[in-house]
Amino acid sequence: MKKVGILGGTFSPPHNGHLIIANEVMSALELDEIWFMPNQVPPHKERPDTASNENRLEMLRLALEGNEKFKIETIEWQRSGASYTIDTMKILTDLYPGQHFYFIIGADMIEYLPKWHKIDELAELVNFVGVDRPSYSHETKYPITLVNIPVIDISSSLIRERLGNGKTVRYLLPDSVRQYIKENHLYGT
Fold first, then answer.
1. Tell me, what's the pLDDT at 7?
2. Which CATH number covers residue 64?
3. Count of domains in the chain?
């Protein structure tokens, strides 16, 4: 059975923190692949930027270049409205019955798990993998595998803010993504 990690997010923009998380989890759990799954409208946050789905997809494609074990899964874009993980994972388990899914979340989401839509049912479908983030608790009643990763406090919102203020984002995201943002005048550049 193929072991696949799922890393969801807005990826607006994708950054080196995302890549480090994916690589560390894949190595620690000996996963076969990591699927990066850009979401449409996460139920817990607003879309805070102006990057289109096409922009986000191209930036993600650029960020993943050179790693054949990193894939993009756009299944969430095929549905409209709020996107719930349970619905997505039901579809993926039906489409790929030979896969065992590991859903990767940050420590901020570990604390939030009790509020997830149909969390008990979801916990039966996937293995949750939690990665460390500063200042968050790992306590939860749900089964979760913790993976220690180097502390990398980079976020897409930090990058968007820095870009909007004309500050450097060099070394925070792949150069190809940084160049794409500049060429396409995203995030106030």
1. 97
2. 3.40.50.620
3. 1
